[in-house]
Specification:
Layout: E1 3-6, H1 18-29, E2 35-38, H2 43-46, E3 52-55, H3 65-78, E4 82-83, H4 96-103, E5 127-131, E6 141-143, E7 153-157, E8 164-170, E9 173-180, E10 190-191, H5 196-209, E11 215-222, E12 228-234, H6 247-267
Parallel strand pairs: 1-2, 1-3, 3-4
Antiparallel strand pairs: 5-6, 5-7, 8-9, 8-11, 9-10, 11-12
Length: about 270
Amino acid sequence: MPLLYVTDLAYPARGRRYCDEDIFLTARLREHFPLALCHPLDAAALMPGFDAVIVRNSGPVLHYQEAYEAFRTAALAARARVYNPLTGRGDMAGKQYLLDLTDAGLPVIPTVDDPAELHRLPEVPTYAVKPKQGADSIGLTFTAHPSGPAGEVLIQPRIDFAYEVSFYFVDDAFQYALYAPDPARRWELVPYEPTSADLAFARRFVEWNTLAHGIQRVDACRAPSGELLLVELEDLNPYLSLDLLAPDVRDSFVAALVSSLRSFLATA
């Protein structure tokens, strides 16, 4: 079954090289599936010629929102196989989940989308404010007096966290974790050995997302209290930092992805 692999090899990601990761991953997947690469702007037009579309390092859809919406609409109308499936409740669906999880009392950085609701957040000297439709820290500012149109901004307390850590899953199976010991260097990652409590935290959000197949990255920060708080649930095109993994861990991830894709193609 031929796969259409969607990637923007030229996207200038800060601190990461999307192209290297996708060159590696497509080389490994080609051992198991016939596939072709395409830019996200071409995905909707090329999709009918393939049995499935796998969306990988395609860059923030903010930069091609209209084309992405056209692709999504066409894929849903044609009941096309898209991996990750388009039913994700995390970043794939926008940032509303941060508000929903806050309201549900789950361990997430408290979030509101209206300056009038600032009283619902912990009182801190500085707040993080970013566009609700933003991505990749685009438009992020820090201020003592948050402002902006209700429903169009996300407001969170600025947390003096110890470090950020990411948990990577294929389907519901944990694969590996990486963390940034220096909070000022988000993408200078090293392997992280999660505790059972850490994994329970991450699995809670994977289960909440209810994706039967797909790659998910659960980003969290270690709060001053010692607890983990969700920063982001990336279920659209999470960068995987495969170049930082030991060869056996990388091989295990590829094997899990191949198995997941085969299962997805057989059941979709």
